[in-house]
Design brief:
about 150 residues; mainly alpha; 5 helices; 3 strands; binds zinc ion
Amino acid sequence: MLIPARMSEAEEQRWVSVMLDKLAAQENKRVLGDTELSERAARLSDLYFDGRARPNSVRWVTNQNTRWGSCTPAEGSIRLSHRLQGMPEYVVDYVLVHELAHLLVPGHGPDFWRLLEAYPRTERARGYLEGVVAADRLPHLPAARDE
Ligand SMILES: [Zn+2]
């Protein structure tokens, strides 16, 4: 983030918080509601699985911190972690496609990954998510002013 030169520290703080608010507002706009999430899942199922995966419910959950997504095939329900909110669309789509595929094939055997090959950004999205997990494990970098 570029900060204009010759700002006092107080001005700078204010400016940074205004910019962060703006960023947060933009990100909030991109978050899909549960209805939109269901519509998106239906579209992805049409595109990649000939519409064969038909979940009864697709929704965000906030109590899922170790998994990006989960599904219960018997109920036809898919849940996505709220931690995906604000991540690139292709990453959210990947997790949706992954959980949709579990409605057709349980487990992570060769049949499962063959299904996922239909989604062209599987590898890229998996790399992104691995990066997020790795970054979470890094020690926090000291702020510039503390040095
Ligand atoms: Zn899985």
